[in-house]
Amino acid sequence: MTMGRALPWLGVFLALVAGTPVARAAAPWQTLPPTPDLPATMRSGYLPVNGIRMWYAEFGVGKPVLLLHGGLANSNYWGHLVPFLVAHHRTVIVADSRGHGRSTRSSQPFGYDLMASDILRLLDRLHLAKVDLVGWSDGGIIGLDLAMHDPDRIDHLFAFGANTDPSGLNKGFARSPVFAAFILRARQEYQALSPTPDQYDLFVRQIGHMWQSEPHWTRADLAAITVPTTIADGDHDEAISQAHDRFMADAIPGARLVILPDVGHFAMLQWPDPFDQAVLTALSE
Question: Whole-model pTM?
Answer without folding.
Answer: 0.91
